[in-house]
Each structure stands twice: as C-alpha cells, then as structure tokens.
Amino acid sequence: MEVRLARKGFGILLVDFAIMNDLPPNSVVVPRVAIDWYRSAPWWRIAAHSIGISWRASHLLLCGIALLLTQLFTGMAFTLFQPDGITEPVRWVSPTNEVASANPFHFDGHLPVSKPGGDAVAATTLPGKLPGPWYHGAPDSFLEVWRRLTLYPYQALEQLSLKRAAYLLVSFGVVLFVWSFVGGCLSRRSIQELGTRITSPWMDTVRLVRRRWLSIAWAIAMPLAMISLVALIPLLLGWLSNLPGIGPWLAGVLMLPVVVLSIGLGWCASISLIGFPLSTAAIVAEKQADAFDGVSRAAAYTFQRPVTLILCVAVAQWIGHFAGAIVGLVLNTGYSLVSQSFSLGAAHPLHGLGTALDGVFAQFVPWLMTAFGFSFFWTASSAVYLLLRREVDNAEFDLIDMNVQQGPKPLPELPEAPKVHEGASKPASEPATQSENQSS
C-alpha cells in the first residue's frame, strides 16, 4: 500500500491513495468524508426537533383545553369584579399576532371589476360569501406568548384599585395553576425527547408533574410574594408622608434606601417573570428538584449567560415565526376548503347557521393556532434550558431524571443452620460446661 501526500499551506492535501498489489495501477480509492452536524453543532438537533414536538396533536389538544379553561375562569373573574380601566377580558382563544409576511393571501369576498370606458376599478361582492378575510393571521410568536402569560402582573403596575387588584390576583392565580401544570407536562415530554430521544409516556409524565406541581407554581410565585411583602414598606411610608409638617421630609429620607432596594426588587421580579420557563424545565428535569432548585437555576442561567439567552430567544422567535406561518397556512387552507364548499350548497357561511355552534366554527382555526403558539413556547423553552445548562454546568443533554422508582433492595437470605442428628456427639464446649458445674 502506498500513500502519497502533498502539503499545501498549513494543511495536508490528499493526492492519491492506491493499493499497489490488489488493484490496477490506475485505480484510486477516495475516502468519503461526512460532517456529523449533531456532534459538531449539538444545538442544531435541539432546535430542529422542537418544531416536530410542538405541533403534535396531543400537545395541541392539551394547550387548547388549557386555553379554554383560562378563558372561562378569567372571564368569570372579570364579570364578578368589573375592574376599573379594563373594558373587556383578555381573549385567550385567539392569537394576537398579526404578522403581514405570515399572511400571504387576503381575500375579503370582493372581486375587482373594470368600469366600461375607463380604468377605474370598482368592487363587487360574490354572492353567498361573507365579507372578511378568510386567513386568520398567524400563531403568536415566542415573545408574544411570554407577554400573554405575564400580562396580569404587569397590568398591576399601571393602575391599582381594589376591584382591579382582586381581578388581577384571581386571573393571575388561574394562569399560574393551569399553565404550571400544562407547562410542566409539555416541558417534561420535550426535555426527555430532546435530551434522550425517548418519548415520555403521558401517564408517567402526568404522575411526575402532579408530584411537583406545587413546586412549579411556588417557584413562580415565591419571588412575587417576596416583592409584595417588601412593597408594604413604601406603602407605610406613603401614609407617613400625609402627616403635616415633618411627614414629607421624614418619608423622603426613609425612602432613599428603599429606592436603592428597588434594584433588588426588579432582580427578583425578573427571575419570576423572565425565568419562569427555565424554572419549570429545571423542576421537571432534575432529580428530586423543588421550587428553590428551580429558582436558583433560573437565576443562574439568566444572569450568568445573558448573551446566550438572548441568542436562544432570537432563534426561537425566528423559527417560531416560520413554523407558525406553515401551521397557519395549513389550518386556514383546510378550513377554507370545507367552509367554502358548505357555503356553496347552503348559500350562507358555515358560521352563519344561526345556532350555538356558530361561535365554535368561527373560533376553530384561531383556537388551534393559539394552541400551537403556546405549545411551541414550552417546547422551545425546554430546548433553551438544555442549551443553557450545558454551557453553565457542562451537563450533557441526556442527563435528566428518568423517573425510575427503585424500591429498597431486599436483604440477602441467610444460610440455613445445619441440622443435628440424634445420637451425634455433643459439641466440645458442652462437656466442658458440665464439668465446670460439677466442680462448682
């Protein structure tokens, strides 16, 4: 065998690789070189596989049910408290994202018609068509879903009254308990599949998340509870400032350290409102994790690697935009074909039957698109957690709690004592004992 190499610059260029004895002289064997992108760029598999997990039917159905429950209970809270400054409850079953590039088609039931003898264009309405766009926009982006989940705490900072505070507190509690469970289930399945390439069964996922549900919720509420307690200090100082004479000066002097303390309050709030997807992923991924473990990991990954976090969020925003455009196109096209075929035969649109099902038909596509946005948010957040954990803790992707319940190991069986036959000689120690008794 002969190998001929030629140097070029700082590298080595393979010129010929010939087997002199077994092959003809003019035969050349060129080795095949391939790049394993999963090993060279480990983040690529995590990012690429997130879309396939997020648009599964089971994940969309779970998010859809959670959206309906959130809409029901927050609507009841709005009707009960009638908060000041809020005219209508938040619509959870419809996307708020209106991206022009994700809306390639816009048909409102009007066709342009040229007027005779001129270039002016008028519009005529097709019979049997309901004016309005048939394309319902696109699912919410990654950052838009985050904004919706953190909406109620930020609304409390704008204006606060008794009714408004009660409405925001109840609504935030609904979002906290519903989406801590749903987000825990989706994060658990996403982390296990992204890290180990093994799909977690739903029953195992539900059992694990049910045991850690309160820890997930407390990891989000704990920093906010600390902020609420500290907020009592400026509240008392505000009452003190109403005293005549020395009140304003005394309250102003005492507020100076409180203003400096506000930096720490903002840090605690950011852990809860920015890092809640990371704390949820940590609690369902790590072995015997609790709320304190989730909060500490969320704070460490957020503030130790802020540039990595920003890049991951930007990539998730970009991938979610195009994936949402595909989902929106599929859902709107399929529903439009069905509804337009129905309207040709019924001479009225599908959501114009005059029954209680009209709202179901009108909100079917927006509901599913919103469900995809929330499903992708939790899946992408799980991918971000794995990437940040690898960079900060140098932990491999497959290093997660597999939820294997191992009971205590049984004690080894003791060997049976040998049986003594009748007539056999007694042990040597026994006669010695008898002789000692006689001498005594």
Brief overview, please?
Helix content is 61%, strand content 6%. It is mostly helical and 440 residues long. Strand 3 (110-114) and strand 4 (121-125) form a beta hairpin.
What is the averaged pLDDT score? 79
Largest sheet properties: 2 strands, antiparallel
The H-and-E topology, N to C, reads as EEHHHEEHHHHHHHHHHHH
Round the Cα radius of gyration to an integer and report it.
Answer: 34 Å
Strand arrangement, major sheet: 1-2
> Which structural class should the secondary elements be placed in?
mainly alpha
Low-confidence stretches: 1-20, 99-133, 432-440
Give the overall form: globular
**Number of H/I helices:** 15
Euclidean distance between termini CA atoms: 97 Å
Percent range for helical residues? 55-70%
Domain module tally: 2
Strand content: 5-15%
| DSSP E strands, number | 4
Give a description of the structure:
The strands form 2 sheets. A two-stranded antiparallel sheet has the order 1-2. A two-stranded antiparallel sheet has the order 3-4. The protein folds into 2 domains: 2-33, no CATH class; 43-393, no CATH class. The N and C termini lie far apart (97 Å). The radius of gyration is 34 Å and the shape is globular. With 440 residues, the chain is mainly alpha-helical. The chain is built from 15 helices and 4 strands. A hairpin with a 6-residue loop joins strand 3 and strand 4 (121-125). The chain has helices at residues 37-40, 42-54, 57-81, 142-149, 151-158, 162-196, 202-211, 213-230, 232-240, 247-273, 276-285, 291-304, 306-346, 358-393, 429-439; strands spanning 2-8, 11-18, 110-114, 121-125.
